[in-house]
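Exercise (ungraded).
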Amino acid sequence: MNPAYDVFDDHCPTRLVLDRLADKWALLVLDRLQDGPVRFNHLRRDIRGLSQKVLSQTLKRLERDGLVKRTVHPTVPVSVDYGLTPLGRTLTETVAAFAHWAELNMDAVLAAQTAYDSAMTG
Amino acid sequence: MNPAYDVFDDHCPTRLVLDRLADKWALLVLDRLQDGPVRFNHLRRDIRGLSQKVLSQTLKRLERDGLVKRTVHPTVPVSVDYGLTPLGRTLTETVAAFAHWAELNMDAVLAAQTAYDSAMTG
DNA sequence: CAGCATCCGCTCGGATACTG
DNA sequence: CAGTATCCGAGCGGATGCTG
């Protein structure tokens, strides 16, 4: 580890990475890719609510950051799939933990919200 | 786990949670709180670039979601600190993994970006 | 110290239409 | 199928000023 990097520092480049990863769509894409490469429109269908424009942007950013690999298959018509790079793979566990923490603890969060809101009202 | 919850579903409540957690500031706050409660202005100073308004909003949301506990100490003047709830504590490992993945893999990401950009240019 | 209220620029992201 | 291009409204978040 390079001790010069510090996420709490405003001007540290890690902030840029954090900004990329702290994105709902990027997390969902990375989570969806953990079982292997997926094609563009397949991703689009699987991740409900994700528009094609945002998917395109998200994939491009993830590719630029070296987390996702874009592969073009020379078929007719051309087909393209997206998979994790080795670097991206080092993140999958964390991403999965994140995404599924929500599923596991949803009830507790909803209960906390209800309690908080009723405390405000009453 | 409740199999009814699915982060890939557009209308699943877990999407709301994911939205909250997939936030740079929320992640940094949670990461900063893992060693114990911290006072408001202390947080503000430690997390560079975080404005007071956004810190306030972030803390309120995290409190509403049951991840953070706000404690008022009846001193003069009043002092307030924020700490993790037991629920919030179940997230710290994941959050820390996230924040520090950035620090660990910064060099690789920067290299990937450079390669990507030069491939575009040249 | 620990906030709230207001203004406001800027970007995110949804909708739509078009291309190879 | 796999995108690009454009328009545009909503909201995030920074700056500033004020309160108990």
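Further reading is listed at the end of the chapter. For now, observe: Residues 44 and 52 of chain B are 7 Å apart (CA to CA). Chain B touches chain A through 58 residues (CB under 8 Å).
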